Amino acid sequence: MTIQSHEINTIKIAEIISDTIIIQSAQDGLDLMGDIYYQGFDKVILYEKNMTPEFFDLKTKMMGEILQKFSNYRIGLAIVGDFSKYESKSMKDFIFESNRMRHVSFVASVEDALKNFSQ
Predict the structure, then answer these.
(1) Is residue 105 a contact partner of residue 1, using CB atoms and an 8 Å limit?
(2) Which DSSP letter does residue 102 get?
(3) What is the residue extent of each domain of the chain?
(4) Sheet containing 104-107: which strands, arranged edge to edge?
(5) Terminal Cα-to-Cα distance of the chain (whole angstroms)
(6) Does the structure show a pLDDT above 90 at 24?
(7) Rg over CA atoms, the chain
(8) Cα–Cα distance between 30 and 27 in angstroms, integer?
(9) What dotted CATH number matches 2-118?
(10) Model-level pTM greater than 0.85?
(11) Which of 4, 46, 69, 91 is the right S-S partner for 86, CB 3.0 to 4.6 Å?
């Protein structure tokens, strides 16, 4: 895992780059958030491919637990991926509401994530 640093208007953004799954449990998400926070980053960009498929199963509550922690600690999060494959109404509604609230966003590209963080 490597961290690509971006900065927009003094906001430090960590883009997490990895060839493997780095979020396999809620604890992994919390550990990553803590690591990023203590390195002085304000926002995080993660890739869908680096998260276990269970993360995107709302029944596991993993997504909710992790995203709630990011929200509580006011660390912005963007998840980059192709979310059109998630066909459940619940997941589509969750993504829509998250994007509307803007603290956690589901985007198609790093450029979209950076754009969201700059607003």
Answers:
(1) no
(2) -
(3) 2-118
(4) 2-8, 11-17, 43-47, 76-80, 104-107
(5) 28
(6) yes
(7) 13
(8) 5
(9) 3.30.750
(10) yes
(11) 91
Mean predicted lDDT score pLDDT of the chain: 94
- Tracing tokens 């660390």 back to the chain, one arrives at 75
pLDDT digits (tens, 9 = 90+) for 62-113: 999 999 999 888 999 999 999 999 888 999 999 999 998 878 999 999 999 9
Name residue 49's amino acid: K
Residue with structure tokens 């590209």?
109
> How far is residue 24's CA from residue 22's CA, in Å, rounded to a whole number?
6
Length of the chain counted residue by residue:
119
Q: In the block, which residue shows the tokens 């509401």? A: 97
Q: b/e for 80-98, b at 16 or more Cβ within 10 A?
A: bbebeebeeeebeebbeeb
